[in-house]
Amino acid sequence: MKKADLMKKATYLKAMAFFAMTAFANPVTVFAGEGSVDFSGAATPVVGLINSLVGPVISVVAAVGAIYCVILGVKLAKADEPQEREKAKMALKNAIIGFFLIFILIVVMRLMIPTLVEWVNSNSNGAPQIEVGQ
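Request: output the structure for the sequence above.
Response:
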């Protein structure tokens, strides 16, 4: 590396280290000023995005998972040799397990959003409250 590149990196690292030390010394002062921390500005768009994406994500996962399972089932039916048959059977089993895990994680996410929003609202100390859309 060139000396100029090393100097730029060193300056960048010094600035990041200074900011990190300042932030860890008193995070409320650095990030929110004196007083309460307001999470609503950051949390409201995230909650809205998650709520608006859950329906389409479930639809896409269901469609892709069903098509993939059908393709693997056809592959299993066409397999002539025992090794190919076993390989196709394992792939189908793994696809079905992954398919159900995705659905379980989506359901868990839907169940956890109200709890997380309630936690953020309880810690916002008078800041605007976040609404949970269904």
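The mean pLDDT is 76.
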